[in-house]
Design brief:
This protein has strands at residues 24-30, 41-47, 57-63, 69-74, 79-84, 87-93, 102-108, 111-118, 122-123, 133-134, 149-153, 161-165, 184-194, 197-217, 220-231, 235-241, 248-258, 263-273, 284-286, 297-304, 308-315, 321-330, 333-340, 347-354, 359-366. The chain is mainly β and 368 residues long.
Length: 368
């Protein structure tokens, strides 16, 4: 059983771009194998660690079913592994890393550095990840493998996670992260809440053989745009993220790709977002789904107060739309909708009702 450290300071993760933070990321994990779990660990990469006090860089382990932390440790307590150029590997060997839907965050003082989940996506309910969505990395350990296997990044941050032989303290198979020159001199990266979503803006002072930029939201790539190639002149870029359906904290990461396919991180930031709408009288009232939790059918009532074009959608916690239940013009009245989720996995979802001036969400829990 893991020794749990009762050290959960209240950290505010409101502004991430104002304070310099280490370039660090979660690189490899082993938590489940056939028989009694063994050789459990989490591996991190920190660039230029001597420039930071590693006691300020902490790894928090979170339970996916209640969204609460169950353990933490600081990187100065980790085992030091190989180093290549400015990149140092650190490994946290710890018995009792939890199976099933779980997650972890890397925090430097009051700033989020990295966040992920395995075996499902969930939302943190306690500091220092209150309201943050833990994105699923897409692979997991099945419990039938050996203690010498793991899940790990196949390349730099933003690359795909995969499974294979564990290599704690060493680079993952085929991984390259040293001697990579940043192809972009970045002058600006900011996020601003708007009535229709979150506006992202960035500015390059110069670019060298840069083919495109990528935007990641909570670990998932959501946008790509062609870059300027090679130029010594400043260039401005912007993109409106219109797919943020609910209030919460969102982490964005900007990366650049070269013509050779090499991708490198440029900057990241976090923003607490609350949809901005005009202060008009509400045009609808969204009822509470019943039953909730449900399996696999639930129903919800929608009271329309004025003529409006309304969209009713089922979305994931990361803001991805799963299906559109209804979209069209409705006159005043009460409308009842039934939702069959027999094709979905158990988990937490959101029901979102939207007009031009109003957006409202209610949580759904599917238990099978």
């Amino acid at each position: 059983m893991m020794e749990k450290k009762n050290l959960f300071p209240v950290l505010l993760l409101t502004v991430c771009a104002a304070r310099a933070v280490p370039n660090a990321w979660i690189n490899e994990i082993h938590y489940d194998n056939a028989g009694t779990d063994a050789n459990e660990f989490v591996e991190l990469i920190v660039e230029n660690p001597e420039a930071w006090y590693l006691g300020d860089l902490a790894l928090y382990m979170f339970n996916g079913y209640d969204g609460a932390p169950y353990c933490l440790d600081t990187v100065d307590e980790f085992v030091t592994g190989e180093r290549e150029g400015p990149f140092q590997i650190y490994t946290w060997f710890q018995r009792g890393i939890q199976n099933d839907m779980e997650g972890m965050i890397l925090v430097f003082k009051d700033t989020l550095v990295d966040i992920l989940a395995y075996e499902g996506t969930f939302t943190g309910t306690h500091e220092p990840a209150l309201g943050l969505v833990f994105p699923d990395i897409g692979v997991h350990e099945t419990g039938s493998g050996t203690a010498s296997e793991s899940i790990y990044l196949s390349g730099a941050p933003g690359s795909a996670w995969t499974t294979g032989l564990a290599s704690p303290g060493q680079k993952n198979p085929g991984q390259l992260f040293s001697d990579i020159e940043t192809p972009v001199e970045l002058g600006l990266f900011q996020a601003t809440p708007q009535s229709g979503g979150i506006l992202l803006r960035w500015k390059s002072e110069s670019e060298t053989e840069t083919s495109c930029y990528h935007i990641y939201r909570n670990g998932k790539r959501v946008y790509s745009v062609r870059a300027g190639g090679t130029t010594s002149f400043p260039r401005d870029y912007s993109w409106m993220d219109k797919s943020v359906f609910c209030e919460g904290s969102y982490r964005y990461r900007l990366s650049a790709s070269g013509y050779d396919g090499t991708e490198c991180d440029l900057d990241s930031l976090c923003i607490d977002y609350k949809p901005l709408f005009s202060l008009k009288e509400p045009v609808f009232k969204l009822g509470l789904p019943y039953p909730n939790p449900f399996n696999p059918v639930t129903a919800v009532a929608l009271e329309v107060l004025t003529d409006a074009v309304i969209s009713l959608d089922l979305i994931r916690l990361d803001g991805t739309r799963i299906r559109q239940i209804f979209k069209g013009a409705l006159s005043p009245g009460i409308y009842n909708y039934s939702l069959d989720c027999s094709d979905l996995a158990s988990g937490h979802y959101l029901l979102c009702c939207t007009t031009e001036t109003r957006k409202e969400t209610v949580p759904l829990i599917l238990l099978k």
